[in-house]
Amino acid sequence: MESLMNYFSYPFVRYAFAVGILVAFCASLLGVVLVLKRFSFLGDGLSHFAFGIIALAAVFNLSNNLLLVLPCTVVCAVILLVSGQKAKIKGDAAVAAVSMSALAIGYLLLNIFKTSSNVSGDVCSTLFGSHAILTLKMSDVIICAILCTVAVAVFVIFYNRIFSVTFDENFAGATGVNVKAGNLIIAVITAVIIVLAMNLAGSLLVSALIVFPALSAMRVCKSFKGVTVVSAVISVVGTALGLVLSILFSTPVGATVAAVYILIFVFFLLAGALVKS
Amino acid sequence: MPLIKCENLCLGYDGRTVAKDLSFEIERGDYVCILGDNGTGKSTLVKVLTGLAKPLSGMIHTDFPLSEAGYLPQQTDFQKDFPATVWEIVLSGCLGRKGFFGFYNSEDKKTARENMEKLGISELSSRSYKDLSGGQKQRVLLARALCAAREVIILDEPASGLDGKSSEEMYEIIDSLNKDEKMTVIMVSHDEEKSLKYADKVLHLGKTQFFGTHEQYEIFMKEEKQRS
Fold first, then answer.
1. Which among B69, B71, B102 is the nearest to A160, CB-wise?
2. What angle, rounded to 10 degrees, do the helices at A224-248 and A11-36 form?
């Protein structure tokens, strides 16, 4: 306990907690919509796409890669989600194609244009987010706080519309809800949160932040509101716990948080089964 | 002024035409059923009438805002395990009348309560949609449609997937909405026998199109049989 207090005297540890919890909170809200709309893999695809762009940024020696990664990922998300129904290659196949292309080309670029002596170390930390969350600056925290606040505000303001569109696009459209605009907003927020959340869990594990809270909450909750609130609570508790454990036992942050999420999911799975029987 | 007037509608999707030269008028209080084989454009017509799709050509005039048609779409697969309470779903029918923010007020809640009562699902209010039977689910979606509807309800296969008793109940409910609540009903159905029992007008899509009263339709069908 004392050593933990000691750690909190370092600003970078406090930054990590602030950003980690904020981002996980947003990811869990979004996760409810993505899981129910059967778009869980969108997060996965986007994070792999973002990996490709980060590799590109490294090749060009860009110091602040957020400025490149964020817009590119947003564009990718919009294309995948909005053109989803009309495109020749549909849904999950399109996401798989995009994410694999980005991973492969990104890794190739990094190896061809070696920018550091330890390419595999860099790649590993981008994929699993080993220490990115502990190297944040105050400016990163502010950017993250602003983007997360906007995301949560949009979710709260349009909560009823988001519910209607998620449950039944056709009915929502017939009552005059602009379904296309709704999907567009969801795509943009997904991209932003994914890029931010990669700091916490890396590009391979970021989907865990999106799917597990919603899946856990769905085991026990009867209402949409219940699922939303419970997944938000799970994300905050799970991330805080994961960060504390990873600091105390010096384990990789992303994997630890994901492992805590998995444990929570198993707990809810059993609880759900017990409630039913 | 008819409630809905369609002139020379041409319907289709993905560059394919499924129905041509469709003209008909629906008056207030009508109970119209739309019949026809698969692929004759029944669902596309419903999409056009609810404003979800645009006709390829032709004119459609409605004497009410399109967003005020109560729509009962076909259930989708993933709705079956959707975590939402009956109350949340019925209330979402009021969303069409809301402004930018879409927050519900006490009047919306009253509308939702009344419609749930009308369909006998008040006790289900806090139950989860995924735990309901097929017939109960369909009533929930109909209650939601009624929250949006001022004078028209548009139903796409309201009894599909229901067992005999629930489907009979569904048709009874729809009939009473038409007779007692003076709702105009437009219904797509596969079940020709059942829908003809209640509907007073028929729109038949297919190679030969027909629009007219129930009695005229029976004459039309006889002629069709003799021709083939």
1. B102
2. 150
Q: What backbone phi and psi angles, to 5 degrees, belong to B144?
A: -65, -45
Task: Give me the interface pTM, i.e. the ipTM.
Answer: 0.90
| DSSP states along B202-224 | EEE-SSS-EEEEHHHHHHHHHHH
A28 forms beta bridges with none
Chain B contacts of A167, Cβ < 8 Å?
79, 82, 84, 89, 92
Query: In 10 A of CB A220, how many CB atoms?
Result: 18
Amino acid symbol at A249: F
Compute how many other C-beta atoms are within 10 angstroms of the C-beta atom of residue A163. Answer: 24
Distances (CA, A) of B212 to A253, B21, B215, B220: 70, 16, 8, 9
A131 DSSP assignment:
S
Q: How far is CA B141 from CA B76, B92, B144, B176, in A?
A: 12, 10, 5, 17
* CA-CA-CA-CA torsion sign (A248, A250, A254, A260): negative
Structure tokens at A197: 């959340």
| Count of residues making up chain B | 228
pLDDT by 10s per residue, chain B, length 228: 888 999 988 888 877 888 888 899 999 999 999 998 888 888 889 999 988 888 898 888 888 887 788 999 988 887 888 999 999 999 999 988 877 777 899 999 999 999 999 999 999 999 999 999 989 999 999 999 999 998 899 999 898 888 888 899 999 999 999 999 899 999 998 888 888 888 989 998 888 888 988 888 888 888 888 887
Residue A134 tokens read as: 């502990």
Residue numbers in B near A160 (CB within 8 A): 92, 95, 98, 102-104
Q: Would you say how long chain A is, in residues?
A: 277
Å from A218 to nearest chain B CA? Answer: 7
Question: A144 with A152: CB under 8 angstroms?
Answer: no
B141 neighbourhood in chain A, CB within 8 Å = 171
- For chain B, the farthest-separated pair of C-alpha atoms sits apart, in whole angstroms, at 59
Q: Scanning the structure block, which residue is given the tokens 């109909």?
A: B142
The string of DSSP codes covering A222-273 is -SHHHHHHHHHHHHHHHHHHHHHHHHHTT--HHHHHHHHHHHHHHHHHHHHH
Q: What is the mean pLDDT of residues A72-82?
A: 86
